[in-house]
Amino acid sequence: MEEMLQGALSHLDEAAKYTQVHADVLEKLRYPKEILTARLLLRMDNGSRRSFVAWRCRYDDTRGPTKGGIRYHPDASLDEVVTLAFWMTFKCAVAGLPYGGGKGAIKVDPQQLSRAELERLSRAYVHAFARMIGPERDIPAPDVYTNAMIMGWMADEYSSLVGHPSPAVITGKPLALGGSRGREDATARGGFACSNT
């Protein structure tokens, strides 16, 4: 694995010195359960085609379906995706949530895409990862440069693929599509609450 994940694993090793965690559990936590890399071929508005690399990682699902954001960023990498899925595994466990850690990304500068291109790219991501995600398996969410509109497109695409409405597949959707009130600023409010305790 790459440098970022190695740094995260060093924290796991350090924490293990102060706990009674069985060696088998530590071994399981050293490696992601599942990683998928895909190349998304996008039709641009001018008729040309461009390809973008995309990833999804399900790090650990011991506590329940994996959950984690999808980021659109020109510097996204597999190492970053796996490391953030690793940390999401621990975030859910520490918070007592019945989820495991997941993460996804597309290596793209979304500010260079039109709205129509952004929608086609978002729908292409769901096509590529449809067998990996799902309400009982892996639940994506917004992250860096993704928002409620993008999550709405993704939820709609997934529902079309499975043939029925499936609002539980993705969080962070618009309220009209089954989103949760307060989701937009939930991360900031959580950070504020933690910093004031």
Structure in a nutshell:
The protein has a five-stranded mixed β-sheet. The chain is of the alpha/beta class.
What labels would you give this structure?
single chain; 197 residues; alpha/beta; Rossmann fold; five-stranded mixed sheet; 6 helices; 40% helix; globular
3D architecture notes:
The mean pLDDT is 91. A 5-stranded mixed beta sheet has the order 1-2-4-3-5. It has helices spanning 3-16, 23-29, 78-94, 115-129, 148-162, 186-195; strands at residues 34-43, 49-60, 66-73, 100-107, 138-142. It has one domain (23-191): 3-Layer(aba) Sandwich (Rossmann fold). It has 6 helices and 5 strands; from the N terminus they run ααβββαβαβαα. The longest helix has 17 residues, at 78-94. A hairpin with a 5-residue loop joins β1 (34-43) and β2 (49-60). The protein starts with a helix and ends with a helix. It has 197 residues and is an alpha/beta fold.
In CATH terms, the superfamily is Leucine Dehydrogenase, chain A, domain 1
In what order do the strands lie side by side in the largest sheet? 1-2-4-3-5
Strand pairing plus helix content: what structural class? alpha/beta
SSE string, helices as H and strands as E: HHEEEHEHEHH
Q: Helix count, per DSSP? A: 6
* Highest CATH level, the class: Alpha Beta
How many structural domains can be distinguished in the coordinates? 1
Uncertain ranges: none
Beta fraction? 15-25%
Topology, pairings included?
Elements: H1 3-16, H2 23-29, E1 34-43, E2 49-60, E3 66-73, H3 78-94, E4 100-107, H4 115-129, E5 138-142, H5 148-162, H6 186-195
Helix pairs in contact: 1-3, 4-5
